[in-house]
Amino acid sequence: MQSVKKHGVTLAYEDSKPGLPPMLFVHGWGCDHTAFAPQAEFFSRSHRVVSVDLRGHGKSDAPHQDYTMATFADDLAWLCTGLALTKPIVVGHSMGGNVALELAARHPGVPASIVLIDSVIFPHRSFLDALQPVVEALRGPDYVTACQRALLATCLPTDDETRKAQLITSLPKAPRHVLASALRNHLTEYDVTPAAAGCRVPIAYIGAAVPMADLIQFRRLTPQLVTAQTLGSGHFSPLFVPDQINAMLSTFLKVYSPGANGGRMSLEPS
Asked: Does residue 198 register a pLDDT over 60?
């Protein structure tokens, strides 16, 4: 992997550098850039693909600080400037989708468009209540097992069992202080409303079998939102059904992104 330092903090990334248009892939909570390995391989044939390890995750540094969506978004904006990554299509999985949305609102000139894959947006109270055991476990010594169980619960029985076991046992890819702060700051204590209302670029949301977002409320604030859903996969759809995700991303790039049909989205949001 390559890396750069931002105010003394190492930020790691992979960059395929084949040409334009650029794509930026942003992993979710407790993961790293490998969460988008199938997409990086597929789109690097026609795009410049940058896959990041967010601050605190993977091979990036993990200083003791608060890990907010704004901090992650500012890192991405800084990285795009440093790498001359002009108007990338930003694709975020899970928490990475929250980061992409925050990026679009805080730095509207950076992304050309964004895609959120099974991100938690306007969650129901019952969902947040179900997270409390994980929140509590992050304070104890067995936090790794608690995180793995929580992530395993987001998978489906139809997901490949061998790959699922390999994935879960490899997580989390962040230390406890990062996990605790990032979980709180993208779920239990996070108000997504300003970011959703501030997003002006084309945006897609790709859900999975178990709803993670209130799309009706989301669209009230982000009327340009278009939506889709994978079949036969749980939360980690980029890894378990990459053909579906790649096809949906390709369609979004072709039909909805700036540059298609003179820079206008050619279909009404569904």
From this structure: yes
